[in-house]
Amino acid sequence: MHTAELRHAIYLVLTLVATAIVTAKVVGVENVFEPSRYESPTPDGFNADRIDAPTRDWPQQRPQPVPMFGSNDRSRWATVRALVDHGTFAVGHRSDYNDPATDSGIIFEDGWSSIDKVLQPDTHIYFSSKPPLFAVLVAGEYWVLKNAFGLEIVRDRWPVIMIVLLTVNVLPFFISLVLLAKLIELHGTTDFGRLIAFATAALGTFLITFSNTLNNHTPAACCVVFAIYPLLRSAAAPSGLALFVSGFFAAFAATFDLPAAAFAGAVLLVTMIRVQARVFWMMLGMLIPTIAFFVANYAAIGQWLPAYGEFGSPWYNYPGSHWAKLQFATPTNHIPGIDYARETRLVYLFHCLLGHHGWFSLTPIWLVGMLGCIVTFRAAIARLKSSDTLSYEVFVQMAGVLFLVLVVFFVFIQRTNNYGGGTSGLRWFFWLIPLAVLATLAGADRLAQLKWARVLMAVMLGVSTLSAFYPAWNPWRSPWLMVLMERLEWVNYERR
Hints:
It contains 17 helices and 6 strands. It has helices at residues 3-27, 71-86, 132-149, 157-187, 191-203, 206-209, 217-232, 240-256, 261-274, 279-301, 345-353, 359-362, 365-386, 392-415, 433-447, 451-469, 480-487; strands at residues 38-39, 56-57, 92-94, 103-104, 117-119, 125-128.
């Protein structure tokens, strides 16, 4: 077997193995109550004076079995159910604005409750705080399942949720791996570099972890793959159709994950520089999901801007709201829970990059990706000095460096403070994963000739895979590094 044939065989095996893993996670999806996260109903000495002692009460009755994990996905599922079963975006209602006891609706039912909701001040109607376009798309599939096959999400919640997750998480993930394999094969220069990059894409990222929950980050990352593939699949300048497809999925990624708007903007800028005459096709492709995003938002809550644009207003800070406490949280006035971390910017930056939720500490293979960014950037500068033109590939990879810098330092660190809540990874960066994989390819190709570097990269991939698989059944759990730090009493967000 020739080297290229062997690589293709490995791509095939890893693709099928990774797809089987995420399929198994979806088929076996169920919210599990772990005893270690709850106070014992009777004194047993287990929790005595421990800094990482749980603060939750063990349920007095058996909880409702559900294939939904928590507030994030339940908020979306509640909207899906409301749209199809009740013909409305409303997921709840409050009769007396000042009395939480008057709350009612889907979002307050057992197994459907969520803190990710807003209360419209004028109507006292609850809506999901998540942008509604994704829920509208899922509702379309649920409508088909209900009307064509008689499946109802309350009575048949496992079949409905399993089918939807296979559609929105597993199938796009499979297609993304196929496309990434083609790009890696085309742009890689060494066998080891190609294989380490593709193994990372298949097994070493948090897209595996989040495959069994309805989340916006997984489809956003897949859309990034669908956007870059038409641009990088050949050395020739992309056609009008390729630009249209790329623009559509770049903007679609932004509708799932707002920070991905930086990706869409940079790709558009690159296209304007390289193929000015055909940039119209990319802009046309971007227009479709952009219009859909704002129309869905207006249809849901009666305004063009998303509900999370009201953060800090009465939409969030109504009596009894989980988020109302945030206004009292400061670096010196600590409120329990990672939602109210409120650390200094320096501490927050450290934990986002190298600490308990670190982009590089949890997925150290991205250090090779950083090297790849540097290598690509230096090569691009050298080509600029010797030539008036750059290949489209180099332009796109240069833009990748820009995305990471802008998002990390100028948007994410300045605008956020809670690591994305109770989650196993820095989920607001998941849309960057495909770009990080391609950057890792460039870095691994540079190091592939060094034996010690190959061993080190394999270890880095092993740690990255450990991080991805550590939350065995629920992605909305703390990373292994944070659990370790809590056991060592270095950090604690629940008891301050």
